[in-house]
Amino acid sequence: MSSSVAWVAEAAREIAREAREGDDRMLVVVGPTASGKTALAIDLARQLEGEIVNVDSVQIYRGFDIGSGKPTADERAEIPHHLVDLLDPNDAIEASRFRELADEVLADIRARGKRPILAGGTFLWQRAVLYGLAEGPKADAEARRRHRDLAAREGNEALHRELQAADPESAKRLHPNDLVRVSRALEVFELTGRTMTALHEEHGFREARIPHRLVGVRYPDAVLTKRIDERARYWLENGWIEEVSRLEREGFGKSRAMESVGYREVAAFLRGELSREELLPKVVQSTRIFVRRQRTWLARADVRWIEPPNAG
Question: Hey, which end of the chain has fewer CB within 10 Å, N or C?
Answer without folding.
Answer: C
